[in-house]
Write a structure and sequence with these properties.
The chain has eight helices and eleven strands. With 277 residues, the chain is of the alpha/beta class. It starts with a strand and ends in a 7-residue tail after the last strand. The structure holds S-adenosylmethionine.
């Protein structure tokens, strides 16, 4: 996979040299190219922003440097053999960045990121490149950062760890929180390692039992418990077919019950005054 990032703070992307992403680069699984947007400015002050049409506070990033930068990045990439680019535009007004989107993006060969500053980029830039490639406007959460570089680091790490051969154990991300499939979008429960006792705290006996079925059941119950506590919306959205008999027993203990009028039928909702954990 090839990644290009155009930014006015190239040094902000230095963490892409370390840990998992850095190793994937060193192994040649990921090619990362960081570009300084100011290389495409021609005035004495290397201006990349201007006042907004219609008035209002803040500044807006100008079309010309972005247009020239993206044209150059695209030309260089194609020349280097890259193909099927997709533009990733970090913005708090984008679609939520989710594990599902990370999985989707990990299947694309070339991602070009446009982290902005100020009040964002003149809309015409996104509209222009949307005629040439898929554009994903993504938000990493319901808060506003000063710039999109941190969002690029977040998206890159989430995507890179899904690339074949990047994680030491290919199974590692199958049980992740939000992993599509078996866990029905539940949060992952607690994890433990050696020693078995630390400062008087022991690990749950079941994890030492060697009984795979019981361990799987315990993990599933803990996932249901944690999801109930922090993300009950995930359980409300779950298709009830994802829950087996034992799940339903646990859900009942946690205060959930099937709603006969829910859509699809039997979707779970939480009784008020449900059992406290
Ligand atoms: C100060 S913000 C612009 C906020 C803009 N006025 C708005 O409310 O949409 C500057 C840049 O930071 C990045 N950014 C800020 N919050 C973000 C978020 N939650 N997710 C992704 N990018 C974000 C985007 O690149 C954005 O253009």
């Amino acid at each position: 996979m090839r990644l290009d990032v155009v930014t006015i703070f190239p040094e902000y992307l230095d963490p892409l040299n370390v840990s998992l992403v850095g190793k994937a680069r060193a192994r040649g699984q990921l090619g990362v190219h960081v570009h300084d947007l100011r290389d495409w400015t021609y005035d004495r002050h290397n201006t990349v922003d201007d006042t907004p049409y219609g008035g209002g506070p803040g500044m807006v990033m100008k079309t010309e440097p972005w247009g020239e930068a993206l044209d150059t990045v695209l030309a260089d990439g194609y020349e280097g053999g890259a193909h099927q680019p997709a533009l990733i535009v970090p913005t708090p007004s984008g679609r939520p960045f989710t594990q599902e989107l990370a999985v989707h993006l990990s299947g694309r060969p070339w991602l070009i990121f446009t982290p902005a500053r100020y009040e964002g980029i003149d809309r015409r830039v996104v509209d222009e490149y949307a005629t040439r490639m898929p554009v994903y406007e993504v938000s990493i959460g319901d808060y506003v950062l000063a710039g999109g570089e941190a969002a690029v680091l977040v998206v890159t790490e989430a995507v890179a760890r899904l690339l074949p051969g990047v994680l030491g154990n290919a199974e590692s991300h199958r049980d992740d929180s939000f992993a599509p499939g078996a866990m029905a979008n539940l949060l992952e429960g607690p994890v433990y390692t050696k020693p078995p006792a630390w400062r008087g705290r022991e690990i749950p006996d079941v994890l030492l039992s060697g009984h795979h079925g019981k361990i799987a059941r315990w993990r599933r119950d803990e996932a249901l418990r944690r999801t109930t506590e922090y993300r009950p919306d995930l359980i409300e959205r779950c298709d009830p077919k994802a829950f087996d008999k034992k799940d339903r027993e646990m859900l009942s203990i946690l205060g959930w019950e099937p709603d006969p009028e829910g859509e699809p039928c039997g979707r779970f909702w939480r009784r008020t005054g449900g059992v406290e954990q």
